[in-house]
Design goal:
The complex is a heterodimer of chains A (about 450) and B (about 675).
Chain A lengths: L1 E2 L12 E6 L2 E5 L33 H4 L6 H35 L7 H8 L10 E6 L5 E6 L4 E5 L7 E2 L9 E4 L6 E5 L4 E5 L14 E4 L9 E4 L6 E4 L5 E6 L4 E6 L8 E4 L5 E5 L4 E6 L4 E6 L5 E6 L5 E6 L4 E6 L11 E5 L3 E5 L2 E5 L3 E6 L5 E6 L11 E8 L5 E8 L7 E6 L6 E8 L7 E4 L2
Parallel strand pairs in A: 1-23, 2-32
Antiparallel strand pairs in A: 2-3, 4-5, 5-6, 6-7, 8-9, 9-10, 10-11, 12-13, 13-14, 14-15, 16-17, 17-18, 18-19, 20-21, 21-22, 22-23, 24-25, 26-27, 27-28, 28-29, 30-31, 31-32
Chain B lengths: L8 H33 L6 H12 L2 H24 L10 H8 L2 H25 L7 E3 L11 E3 L1 H23 L14 H34 L1 H10 L14 H4 L2 H29 L19 H5 L5 H17 L1 H8 L9 H31 L10 H4 L5 H5 L21 H12 L3 H4 L9 H5 L7 H16 L4 H11 L9 H4 L9 H18 L2 H7 L3 H8 L3 H21 L4 H24 L23 H20 L10 H11 L4
Antiparallel strand pairs in B: 1-2
Helix pairs in contact in B: 1-3, 1-10, 3-5, 3-10, 5-6, 5-10, 6-7, 6-10, 7-10, 12-26, 13-26, 14-17, 14-26, 14-27, 26-27, 26-28, 27-28
Classes of the chains: A mainly beta (about 450), B mainly alpha (about 675).
Keywords (chain A): WD repeat
GO cellular component, one term (chain A): nuclear pore
Organism (chain A): Pygocentrus nattereri (Red-bellied piranha)
Chain lengths: ~450, ~675
């Protein structure tokens, strides 16, 4: 078992991790002072002031344009419609709410204010100072999508200068995005009320694709959608909502879906497909997660002791699942194989309890709960985003990089801590899915949107 | 598919057993449903104890047991009709005339008649179980001002229930035609039967309740206007008197009886629920995946192996299940993939792979030809037309614009019929399959380097060298030439004359070529037709009935798209896994033709989606048991095709540059390799 004490001490403030060479993380004074890699990654900075969240006050300017020549009867009918109808529908709504409160008393997590609960269940937290809601690399090309606070999505491509901006009437509270595998154009977006699948023509020069390019998938009761996962073969899309006990399996092109429902746990907060497509992790808001096998769609229940499953990631061959549990500072591993009936219990593979390093810049404390996990596609590196402690100054969120080894026994070995520029707080981490020369980690931080780190395995 | 059931081992051994199992499960579920029904229909809000004791007493009564037996018989009949009428390829007629023809088709009439009768039986049981005023048809008159010897009066409530049963039976049968309820679609994921049943149970309950509500509304309206006719008739024939002291039910006061409507609705829900459950169980059982052996050690089992079964044309359900099995094995089981890639023991030929890939490629090419023919027909006419004369139902069937408003209900299927050949919209398929019976298929189906279906040929089909192609073009174009003049008229004649004879579509495609010679009489007839057509075209009703909509023809083109989707998935997964698993390189020999087929199909599909209405999405149907998956199959096929090509290109990467395909395809492939499609 690996612990943080075995790590080399983190860099003092002001130093930036640049890349990894010969098993060591190399640091420098600023991100620009190293020889560029094969592709120069863009460093994007979205100033928060330019992004305004959706606010559309319903101040109607209807009267100014209305032709007031309609008869008294029509006007009175309109007035009746406006007031009586609204009152009536208000009553019906109140009745419905009252009835649903019974439902809520059975499932306590359902009564939480939905909008407020999204950040709670989604792994990344949208604090107000954070301009990026979600981030997704294209699985095959050098292209990524960034969802911003104002609910627009920008797509950056290494080979073209145009960065299309996607906006849609229904695109609110974007909480997850994923590109469709084995496809150049389809991007699935989990929104507040529905699921949008954008078809962005990669050869098009348009900077503002029309909302006709988006396919709207919705199912009654299935909102807000907070997590989506494409099957690696590109044929199915799974979506999950923390207030819906069923998880939906979509055939996106045909727009039909199959709900998969199991008793217990409440909704589904997070879904993640193993890279070989054989298994699917579905975490719930309670202390329970499920692992579905995707051939006959049966599931194994995994009750956790402490809290809900906070984050999970699959090894590239789909045989191993690493996950972390809320309230515990360890990483668990589950090993699946087709021969035996599956694992009986999870093993602890890394201990992330708080460790204090005393260096030149004063004492630095690292460790804590895991916010998210990312495993690079070659299976060599594991990045762990650790939550910081807001009260103490020397204890901020930090990324720990592990080396992974699967034979003879599965092991995590320490590699180092990654530090960004001063004041930047990492929020999202994702590995580049098809980087040829090792593992390319992308970090989306609170001030800097992207700080790429290439770990060349030389 | 009763006519071919005798010939096929699969229908005999598998489908029949599956149907039997599904029916027996629905019979086993009957007691539970009946109990629930009794509790609901005898519901008394203010006497809960009396209610419970009454219901419990009724559960063991002889009349209930007898009703249960009758209901089991009903379920058996419904199950039998499910088995006889189901289809995996929906037939999509597109106009009101076609709808009419389908509804009045003798086969459909039998269906409706039986459902009427069976509905009456169910309602009789329901009225017996409901008891009280519904129980019997006659009752002794309360006060006999008429001095008859026997004072039996007609119990209108009972009659009302029986007629409701007949009405619901008919509307079930009718809606089955309208909503393609006999179409069995395959699920996108595999699930165990029990879990699938459990998952769709709430939906079925909701559907039957909603559908019953609509039926009650329609029935009550009908009874209000015409209720006196059956009442008078029954009372005359059975010599029952009508008690004038009671309200007659076809009055406003009689019908606005809340408890009557509630009982009717609950009984209707019960009726529809038992039937829907039977349909649902049948669908679940029949679409369950079936594992065919890839190769067999015994010669007598050879016809049950995957390569043989895939080439099957008669039993469509078997072909579909085989393709599904191919798609599944190519994704999930390495050991069975190994068998596909293996060589035959003496000789060392990859027979399995050759047969499988040939069959899949034949499917894809057939679809491409169908699309090309359709596109050609549209392009030359300036408006969408059915691809051929043989698909009469389809030709008359493009829905009128106005029928879109009634979306969901207008796509009436043709009456389910024994499909001798794979029932597909385009005649191209029929032709190709016909021809393949006579001659070995390889030549037209192997897209060699200069395939006639590559881009330039798509645009102008006329001058093409080679006898094979020539026959094909003539056969494709002839129906089109034939009907260039009388679009409207030919549609009507087709549906009127052939409407009853739709069961034999096969001869149609072969007939057009000889008829092509322009004779004087034909010319004269042509002119007559033209005149009549001009006359008819001015009548609003005729236009309304015969108007065509390209979306329906587009749906019809892709009606069997599920087979192609599986073929694409199976082929692409096999090719992708051959990169690491194919020891002898058997796949490499067919890789050029696979890529060629896929790319030309991609081109044809792209072109098809450029047609007006081809890419418009259908309106979602609300709560009905009819499956509307077929309406979006073309989108699914387009997506599956792209994914399949990407799967191959992303697996092979730069190695594909060494595969020798035509320059046009090479260019296209390059686009895919750069992820620019």
């Amino acid at each position: 078992m690996c612990s943080l004490a075995l790590f080399p001490p983190p860099l003092p403030s002001g130093q930036v991790t640049l890349y990894e060479a010969n098993n060591e993380l190399v640091s420098g004074g600023s991100p620009d002072c190293y020889e560029k890699q094969h592709w120069e990654p863009p460093s994007l900075n979205f100033p928060r002031e330019t992004l305004k969240p959706h606010s559309r006050p319903e101040s109607s300017s209807k009267a100014a344009f209305l032709d007031h020549k309609d008869t008294l009867w029509m006007r009175s009918a309109g007035a009746w419609y406006k007031y009586t109808y609204k009152t009536f529908s208000g009553c019906v709504l109140a009745l419905l709410r009252w009835m649903s409160s019974f439902h809520g008393s059975l499932f306590p997590h359902l009564t939480v204010n939905i909008t407020a609960s999204i950040p709670h269940f989604v792994f990344l937290s949208f604090s107000k100072s954070f301009a990026v809601r979600s981030f997704a690399w294209h699985p095959h090309t050098d292209k990524f999508a960034v969802a911003l606070l104002d609910d627009s999505i920008k797509i950056y491509n290494s080979r073209s200068a145009t960065a299309p901006t996607l906006k849609h009437r229904l695109q609110r509270n974007v909480s997850a995005m994923q590109w469709k595998p084995l496809c150049a154009s389809a991007l699935a977006v989990a929104c507040h009320t529905c699921l949008l699948v954008w078809h962005v023509d990669p050869t098009s020069l348009s900077t503002r694709p029309s909302s006709g390019c988006a396919q709207v998938l919705s199912h009654p009761g299935h909102s807000p959608v907070t997590s989506i996962a494409w099957s690696p073969s590109g044929s199915l899309l799974v979506s999950a909502s923390p207030v819906d006990t069923a998880m939906m399996v979509w055939d996106v092109a045909a727009e039909n879906c199959v709900p998969l429902q199991r008793v217990g746990g409440g909704g589904v907060t997070n879904v993640s497909w193993s890279p070989d497509g054989s298994r699917l992790l579905a975490a719930t808001p309670s202390a329970l997660f499920r692992v579905w096998e995707t051939r006959m769609w049966t599931c194994e229940r995994w009750p956790c002791l402490k809290g809900r499953c906070q984050s999970g990631c699959w090894s590239p061959d789909g045989s191993r699942l690493l996950f972390s549990v809320q309230g515990e500072m360890v990483i668990y591993a589950l090993t699946f194989s087709d021969m035996t009936g599956g694992p009986k219990s999870a093993a602890v593979v890394a201990d992330l309890s708080e460790t204090t390093f005393s260096g030149t810049g004063g004492e630095i404390t690292v460790g804590g709960e895991v916010q998210s996990l990312a495993w690079d596609p070659s299976g060599e590196r594991l990045a762990v985003l650790l939550k910081g402690n807001a009260e103490s100054s020397g204890h901020s969120a930090i990324i720990a990089v592990f080396k992974t080894r699967s034979s003879p026994v599965f092991e995590l070995l320490p590699c180092g801590f990654v530090r960004g520029e001063a004041g930047a707080e990492p929020r999202l981490i994702q590995f580049h899915p098809h980087f040829q020369h090792g593992a390319l980690l992308t970090v989306v931080s609170a001030f800097f949107v992207e700080l790429p780190l290439s770990t060349s395995l030389a | 598919m009763p006519s071919c059931a005798e010939s096929s081992w699969f229908a005999r051994k598998v489908v029949r057993w599956r149907a039997t199992a599904s029916v027996s499960w629905s019979v086993l579920l009957l007691p539970a449903t009946t109990m629930l029904f009794i509790f609901l229909i005898r519901f008394q809000l203010f006497h809960p104890i009396q209610w419970t004791s009454e219901c419990l007493g009724l559960l063991t009564a002889a009349s209930t047991i007898f009703s249960l037996l009758l209901l089991s018989g009903v379920v058996l009949v419904i199950g039998f009709f499910n088995l006889e009428y189901y289809t995996v390829v929906p037939s999509i007629p597109c106009s009101r005339v076609a709808l009419l023809a389908k509804v009045l088709h003798p086969r459909q009439c039998v269906h409706s008649l039986v459902h009427c009768t069976v509905g009456m039986v169910v309602m009789w049981c329901a009225s017996v179980m409901a008891g009280g005023r519904y129980r019997t048809l006659g009752f002794p008159c309360t006060h006999s001002e008429s001095s008859g010897a026997h004072d039996a009066c007609l119990n209108e409530y009972h009659l009302f229930f029986l007629l409701a049963g007949a009405f619901m039976g008919y509307s079930h049968s009718f809606l089955g035609v309208v909503q393609n309820m006999n179409y069995v679609s395959f699920q996108i994921i595999q699930q165990y039967k029990y879990l699938r049943f459990k998952g769709s149970l709430p939906w079925v309950v909701k559907c039957s309740a909603v559908q019953s509500l609509y039926s009650v509304r329609n029935y009550v309206a009908l009874y209000f206007f015409f209720g006196h006719i059956p009442r008078a008739w029954i009372s005359n024939t059975l010599n029952l008197q009508i008690d004038s002291s009671l309200h007659s039910l076809d009055s406003l006061a009689g019908l606005l009886d809340f408890s009557l409507l509630y009982h009717l609705w609950i009984s209707g829900t019960f009726l529809l629920f038992t039937w829907y459950i039977t349909v649902l169980l049948f669908r679940i059982y029949v679409t369950e995946s079936y594992s065919f052996p890839v190769q067999s050690t015994f010669a007598e089992d050879a016809e049950q192996c995957l390569p043989k079964v895939l080439a099957e044309k008669n039993t469509l359900i078997m072909k579909f299940l085989a393709l599904q099995d191919l798609a599944l094995l190519s994704q999930h089981s390495p050991s069975r993939r190994q068998e596909v890639f293996s060589l035959s023991q003496p000789g060392g030929h990859p027979h399995n792979w050759n047969a499988i890939s040939k069959e899949c490629l034949a499917l894809l090419n057939e679809l491409m030809q169908r699309l090309v023919a359709h596109h050609d027909a549209v392009a030359s006419n300036g408006r969408a037309k059915p691809p051929s004369a043989s698909s009469d139902a389809r030709s008359s069937s493009e829905t009128s614009v106005s029928s879109v408003v009634m979306s969901g209900t207008e796509d009436l299927p043709q009456t389910p019929r024994p499909s001798v050949l794979m029932r597909t919209p385009g005649s191209v398929f029929l032709k190709s399959s016909n021809r393949s019976v006579g001659s070995p298929v390889t030549a037209p189906f192997t897209p060699d380097l200069d395939s006639p279906f590559s881009t330039p040929a798509l645009r102008r089909l006329a001058p093409q060298p080679g006898p094979q192609q020539a026959t094909w073009f003539s056969s494709v174009q002839s129906p089109h030439v034939m009907r260039r003049g009388p679009k409207l008229w030919s549609a009507s004649t087709d549906s009127q004359t052939n409407g009853s004879a739709t069961a034999s579509p096969a001869p149609a495609p072969s007939s057009p070529p000889p008829e092509q010679k322009p004779s004087f009489i034909a010319q004269w007839l042509q002119n007559r037709k033209e005149q009549v057509r001009g006359f008819l075209a001015k009548r609003v009703l005729v236009v309304y009935l015969f108007n065509k909509l390209p979306e329906a023809s587009s749906q019809a083109l892709f009606a069997d798209g599920q087979a192609h989707i599986w073929a694409l998935e199976g082929l692409s997964h096999l090719v992708a896994s051959s990169f690491s698993e194919d020891k002898y390189g058997v796949v490499q020999t067919t890789l050029p033709s696979i890529l060629g087929s896929m790319l030309s199909l991609q081109e044809a599909v792209d072109r098809h989606f450029k047609l007006p209405h081809a890419s418009s999405k259908p309106v979602k149907t609300s709560c009905s048991l009819g499956d509307s998956t077929y309406k979006t199959l073309r989108f699914a096929l387009r997506a599956a095709l792209k994914t399949a090509i990407y799967r191959i290109t992303s697996t092979f990467g730069e190695h594909l540059n060494a595969v020798c395909i035509s320059a046009e395809h090479q260019k296209r492939l390059q686009q895919f390799m750069e992820f620019k499609e």
